[in-house]
Design brief:
heterodimer; A: alpha/beta; Rossmann fold; 38% helix; globular; B: 164 residues; mainly alpha; 52% helix
């Protein structure tokens, strides 16, 4: 039997804690849950502290515009997951008896040093689990479990899997092989959760999103749009042999938060203790680049390259990007584009979304085109991407 | 000004016009670079023709001004304009074999291509529209860079570690 999400407004009163609520995904999630009648306790760093940690939003001179979570049904309590004392108020009082915790908070910054990533992502998760379930774990005396814990991981934990066939996507059973420090801390989070699930009975559900795109996003996919818009020309690389074409994994933020709510509502026996990729149907990188070049008014030219030549050039480019990032870091600067973002030009990231679809979840933006068009239009309308001077005037 | 060296001038002209166009011209006149290109190419063709048929005494003027350039006909000069850059070195004139007039026409007809190649290189380097900055932007010095993330003073001062 397929599970169907209840219609918004028909659910009983449900309470959720959303961490990272001021972030890109968190703010969309809070709004979706509030739209669907959830009582949401939203938490994130206090603004002054947040601006010290989330410096990635300052890389480009774009409007500091965020999706507001200031609305009825949403209570905001600032907290720092690395500071246990600030987490306690999230769990005090009857109004904070949650049925679901959505843990979107993490330091997603490829430039951050590993120690900081570990402290925020892994240490912060441990503190949250201890505050939420206590040291004894989720099972209470009456046998009832604590809140369902929906955790945000990343498809990056897989790195580039060993594909049996290049055109068959890897599923959730692929082994971990994280290619950068951020993904490494996400893998450590997953292992910690697995331990809490196994030893303490915490009802965990893990979402592994592909790179997220959508309005208000200032890091990650936005960099691709910004790069194409600013440079103004794109060499679209057609690979030969064609069987080696690289995929473009991505998920629209609205699909991602819908998937999270779906997993919160799904029967426990089908989702608890499981991990789910959240990813649209992977198109090809060359199609994506040609499409956004067209949307963003950039020139594009097709360059046909044999696979081995492409691999050599892409690796040189990637190594140069890493070298440049390290050079700038030594000067106390951060680059416009963090090197790990270039991993997509050297790796095949092709993941399956069948597992969540088999439960009955439907993507609103299954392919990359409609969502990308709307997202790019939003960036242009809101001044995040430059227009011609006379268009602005 | 010779048939061959003009190819290089056309490339440079296209490149410079594109830079000018990107910086200021486009805002005032969208088709400026095509107009300027037409003017440059047409003027070049006319001048070259007049020199070639010895109506414009360019070789004589240059020869008077720069002693290492020997007196010669316009037709010879158009194939030997490299002498201008030779600064007193070898001054041998090339024999102009029969059939070079056709080659000259072919070269002159290719000037628009070289001009637009210059435009294209300029486009890639500097961009075309007012919001584009071209590939050179990637190598420009980063100003006002965002700081590294930190929770407390002292955090994030280490160099980021990245494993490819």
């Amino acid at each position: 039997m397929q599970y169907m999400s209840p219609m918004p407004g028909t659910e009983p009163n449900r309470r959720a804690l959303v961490t990272g609520a001021s972030g890109h995904t968190g703010s969309f999630l809070v709004n979706l849950l509030a739209d669907h009648g959830w009582h949401v306790t939203a938490t994130d760093l206090a603004q002054d502290r947040r601006s010290r940690v989330i410096t990635k939003e300052e890389i480009f001179d774009v409007p500091r515009e965020r999706l507001s979570i200031d609305r009825p049904g949403v209570e905001f309590i600032p907290a720092d997951l690395t500071d246990k004392e600030t987490i306690q108020p999230l769990f005090e009082g009857e109004q904070h008896g949650y049925c679901t915790v959505f843990h979107t908070a993490s330091l997603y910054d490829y430039f951050a040093p590993f120690e900081l990533l570990e402290r925020v992502n892994v240490g912060g998760l441990r503190n949250l689990l201890e505050a939420c379930y206590g040291r004894r774990g989720a099972r209470k005396n009456d046998g009832a479990e604590g809140p369902r814990f929906i955790h945000w991981s990343t498809c990056g934990v897989y790195g580039q899997p060993k594909y049996e066939r290049w055109d068959v996507p890897a599923d959730e059973t692929a082994p971990f092989n994280p290619p950068n420090d951020y993904s490494r801390t996400k893998m450590m989070q997953e292992r910690l959760l697995e331990q809490w699930h196994r030893e303490h009975g915490v009802p965990t559900v893990i979402i592994r999103p592909a790179p997220i795109y959508g309005p208000y996003q200032a890091y990650g996919m936005f960099h691709v749009y910004h790069l194409v818009r600013t440079v103004g020309s794109v060499p679209v690389v057609c690979l030969y042999p064609r069987s080696k074409r690289l995929r473009m994994p991505m998920v629209h933020v609205e699909d991602l938060v819908r998937a999270a709510e779906f997993l919160a509502d799904a029967p426990a026996e089908k989702v608890v203790g499981e991990a789910f990729n959240a990813i649209g149907d992977c198109g090809y990188q060359e199609d994506f680049m040609a499409y956004i070049a067209q949307l963003l008014g950039a020139d594009y030219s097709y360059i046909s390259v044999p696979w081995f030549v492409y691999v050599i050039l892409a690796r040189i480019t990637y190594r140069r990007a890493v070298g440049r990032m390290k050079g700038l870091a030594r000067k106390g600067k951060r680059p416009r584009y963090d090197a790990p973002m270039a991993e997509y030009i050297t790796h095949q990231y092709f993941f399956s979304n069948e597992k969540i679809k088999r439960l009955g979840f439907k993507y609103e933006y299954p392919d990359m085109f409609v969502g990308t068009k709307r997202t790019v239009d939003w960036y242009l309308d809101h001044g995040w991407l430059e227009k011609e001077k006379w268009e602005v005037a | 000004m010779g048939f061959v060296s003009t190819i290089a001038y056309m490339l440079v002209a296209g490149f410079v016009v594109q830079l000018w166009y990107r910086r200021s011209l486009r805002a005032r006149w969208k088709d400026a670079k095509f107009f300027i290109g037409n003017v440059i190419i047409a003027a070049t063709w006319i001048l070259q023709y007049l020199v070639y048929i010895d109506v414009l005494p360019l070789p004589a003027v240059l020869s008077a001004a720069f002693p290492w350039i020997p007196p010669q006909s316009g037709r010879t000069w158009m194939w030997n304009s490299w002498q201008f850059w030779q600064f007193g070195g070898g001054q041998a004139l090339l024999d102009i074999p029969a059939g070079m007039s056709q080659v000259a026409v072919m070269l002159a007809l290719s000037y628009p291509l070289w001009y637009f190649l210059g435009i294209w290189i300029g486009r890639c380097a500097f961009g075309n529209k007012s919001y584009q900055h071209g590939a050179l932007w990637l190598f420009s010095v980063e100003k006002g860079s965002a700081p590294a993330p930190r929770l407390e003073p002292g955090d994030g001062e280490g160099e980021p570690e990245h494993r490819p």
